[in-house]
Each structure stands twice: as C-alpha cells, then as structure tokens.
Design brief:
The complex is a heterodimer of chains A (167) and B (126). Chain A is mostly helical. Chain A has a single domain (3-158), classed as Arp2/3 complex 21 kDa subunit ARPC3, CATH 1.10.1760. Chain A is 74% helix and 0% strand. Chain A has six helices and no strands. Chain A has helices at residues 3-25, 41-50, 53-71, 74-97, 104-126, 135-158. In chain A, helix 1 packs antiparallel against helix 2, helix 2 packs antiparallel against helix 3 (53-71) and helix 5 (104-126) runs antiparallel to helix 6 (135-158). Chain A is globular. Chain B has two domains: 1-30; 33-114, mini-chromosome maintenance (MCM) complex, domain 2. In chain B, 25% of the residues lie in helices and 36% in strands. Chain B is α+β, with helices and mostly antiparallel strands and 126 residues long. Classes of the chains: A mainly alpha (167), B alpha+beta (126). The A-B interface holds A 27-28, 31-33, 72-73, 75-76, 79, 94, 97-99, 102, 105-106, 108-109, 112, 122, 125-128, 130-131, 133-137, 139-140, 143 and B 2, 5-6, 9-10, 12-13, 16-17, 20-24, 27, 39, 42, 64, 84-85, 87-88, 90-92, 98-100, 102-105, 107, 109, 111.
Chain lengths: 167, 126
C-alpha cells in the first residue's frame, strides 16, 4: 500500500472512530434496541468512493475494534460486526454501479442489511425468533438513517478534492 | 445504463420502505393478550398475567447482569437495569405482542404469549 493511501485509510479510520465514540455517548433517539443514526457510515461510504473495498473493510474493522475498546461496548461488538459485514456485502457491489451523486441508494439498502445482520445475531444469542418482529421497524429506521447518512456523504464527497482512487 | 441502475435501486428502496412501514402500522394497531413470558438467558423465568392491581417485582438475574421488572395495573416494564445503554428501561411498558421488550446486554426478553384474540374483551390494546 502506498504511503498516500495508508495515510488516507488512517485518516478516515480516525474520523470514523471519533464519530462512532461520540455517537455511542448520545441517548437513544427512539427507545427501540438497534435504532440509531450510524453516522460513522458516512465515512464508510466516502472510503468506498475514495479508496478500494479492501481499504474500506480495514477502516470498518479498525473502527469497530477500537470503537468497542474506547466506548466499552465489547458485548455489542458481535452485533456491530455482523451488521457491518452484511452491510459491506451490500454496499461494496452497489457502490461500484452507483454514481457518487446517488450514494444514498447503497446507503439505504446497506443500512437495512446492517439491521438484518444485527437482528439475526440477537435472535441467535437470545434464542428468541420472535425478535424478528423488530425487523419492520428496524428496516424503516434503517432506511431513514441510511438516507440521511448517504446524503451527508454525498455532500462531503462533493467538497472533496477528486484525487482519490488514482492517488 | 447508470440511469437505469439508479431507477431500479430507487424502486427497491421505496418498495422496501413501504412494505416495512405497512408491517409497522399493522404491529402498532395490533391487539395483545394478557399472558406474558419473561425469558432470561433463553430460559423462561416467569409466565403469567401481564397486569396486577398491586405492583409485583421480578428480578431477572442472568450471567450478564440484573433487570428489575415491574408488573402493575398498567402492564409490565423494566424498572431498572445494570446494562450500559438502558434501552430496555426507556422502552417503557410492553405494548404489543409484535414488539417484545429486549435487553440485549443482559439477554432478557419480555413478551406476550399468544395473539391475545381469545381475551379480546379485556385485552390490552393500542
């Protein structure tokens, strides 16, 4: 990996980590487990459009591990990891075929996938399939949060110098 | 090609949102039963009525922590917990058979058992 790309990866990881830790300190917006804005996904989206999928996976993995370390949420790590894995599985191919202007579209679908991944782990951990009843409300909130983070990411991307992938 | 992709993805997003919203509305207006079940670490620790004239307190102790559950005239809720985010406490009273109270850090689930249709006259409804 070239120094330029290592620097960008580290920078994006740092920004994502700060957002992740700050968001963890905020009280829940809606009293439903799993509903949150997921502002750190702004950085994940930017990373996919500026860097490569491999570097984006690194950014997300580092953010999850260090985020759990700094915010003391080790028990939440497996939920976040499952959600992020499924989210990246959706986001990576969709970002390849979607122009940056419309990055809110992969963001919405990946947010829904993120919630599905988290919920699946919750069902396995609690042995309670009834928790899938949360899927509709988590999908609605995921769509709204994904739209918001996608629009934020597109706005930031517009203001970024376009030297990204070729650098 | 890209315009077509954008249109297809927009349609998928809109459809997903509409279907999910439809289910949320159905869940919100659903009628629930009176019988509840409390599961801690996957084991049933309480089954019985979800309302009580006199407040009843149940401590759900798991390997991960403790949740204090209260059953009163208004229903059942988690009164206090030692988990970090306290989402289970913020959820308030159990409202719907389709939306159990969950404390993921302490592995606790409180839910209505059955659809509640049999106990329609004095069912808990939203």
């Amino acid at each position: 990996m070239k120094t330029n790309r290592i620097t960008k990866t580290a920078l994006l990881t740092g920004i994502a980590l700060i957002i992740h830790v700050l968001e963890a300190q905020l009280p829940p917006i809606v009293p439903v487990p799993g509903v949150k804005l997921g502002l750190a996904n702004v950085v994940t989206l930017l990373s996919l459009y500026m860097l490569s999928p491999r570097e984006t996976v690194l950014v997300v993995a580092c953010r999850l591990l260090l985020g759990s370390f700094f915010s003391g949420g080790w028990s939440q790590l497996m939920y976040a990891a499952a959600g992020s894995f499924l989210s990246l599985c959706v986001m990576i191919p969709l970002c390849r075929i979607t122009p940056p202007k419309y990055m809110f579209l992969p963001s919405v679908l990946s947010a829904a996938a993120h919630n599905l991944g988290q919920l699946t782990v919750a069902v396995l951990v609690t042995c309670t399939p009834a928790l899938f009843m949360y899927l509709p409300i988590l999908t609605v909130s995921g769509c709204a949060a994904g739209l918001f983070t996608g629009l934020c990411a597109a706005a930031v991307y517009d203001r970024f110098p376009k030297t990204g992938k070729s650098a | 090609m890209r315009n077509k992709t954008v249109k297809i993805l927009s349609g998928v997003c809109a459809l997903l949102f509409a279907v999910a919203l439809g289910f949320v509305l159905i869940q919100y207006f659903s009628v629930s039963g009176e019988e509840i079940e409390i599961l801690s670490d996957g084991k049933v620790i309480y089954t019985g009525k979800g309302v009580s004239a006199e407040p009843v307190y149940i401590d759900a102790v798991s390997a991960h922590g403790v949740n204090r559950i209260r059953i009163d005239a208004n229903g059942v809720l988690v009164e206090s917990a030692d988990c970090k985010n306290l989402e289970c406490v913020h959820m308030g009273y159990l409202k719907s058979a389709y939306m159990p109270i969950v404390c993921l850090p302490n592995n606790l689930v409180i839910r209505y058992t059955g659809s509640g249709e049999a106990s329609a006259p004095d069912a808990i409804s939203r």
